[in-house]
Specification:
By secondary structure, the chain is mainly alpha-helical. About 65% of the residues lie in helices and about 0% in strands. It is built from 9 helices and no strands.
Length: about 150
C-alpha cells in the first residue's frame, strides 16, 4: 500500500498540532486532563493532516467509523476520553517519529513494516491501544539512542 505525500506538511506542523492540543509526553497530567475533557473532533483531521494515515486507517485505529467522525464534526461534539487520549498519544508519537526519522514519510514507512524491536509486529497495528502506542514510543527512544533490541 503506497501513501502519497502531495501536501506533506513542514516539520513544524506536527509540533503545532501538539501545542494546539497540549499533547506532551513530558507532561502526562496535561495530556490526561485534555483527554478527560474530550478533544475536539478537529484533532482527528489535524492528525490526518500531519501523518501518513488515511481517514480509514485512523478511524479503524480509533474503532470509530468515519461517518461518526463526520457527525461529531457537524454537531461540534468532542471525542470521548478514550479516543481523545489515543489521538493525543498518536500526536506525541508522530512528534517523536519525526524527531527520530527526520521526516514523517520515513516514519510512516517504518510504521508499516515489521519492527524487530517490537517482536516483528507491524507498529501501525499496535497503535489501536495506548499501551501499543507506548511500546512504539519506547522503541523510537531505543532507535534514537542506538539501542537495538
Amino acid at each position: 500500500m503506497s501513501v502519497e505525500y502531495k501536501n506533506q506538511p513542514e516539520k513544524t506542523k506536527v509540533n503545532e498540532v501538539a501545542v494546539k492540543y497540549h499533547a506532551s509526553k513530558e507532561n502526562r497530567y496535561s495530556l490526561v486532563n485534555e483527554a478527560q475533557n474530550g478533544v475536539s473532533v478537529q484533532a482527528f483531521f489535524d492528525l490526518l493532516a500531519v501523518s501518513g494515515l488515511t481517514k480509514e486507517e485512523l478511524s479503524t485505529l480509533l474503532d470509530i467509523s468515519f461517518k461518526t467522525i463526520q457527525r461529531y464534526q457537524k454537531e461540534e461534539k468532542p471525542l470521548n476520553a478514550l479516543n481523545s487520549e489515543q489521538i493525543l498519544n498518536m500526536i506525541t508519537l508522530y512528534q517523536k517519529g519525526e524527531e527520530v526519522f527526520g521526516e514523517i514519510p520515513s516514519f510512516d514507512r517504518w510504521l508499516r513494516k515489521p519492527a524487530f524491536g517490537l517482536g516483528n509486529h507491524i507498529p501501525l497495528k499496535l497503535m489501536q491501544t495506548s499501551g501499543g502506542i507506548d511500546l512504539i514510543y519506547e522503541e523510537l527512544q531505543r532507535i534514537e539512542h542506538g539501542i537495538l533490541a
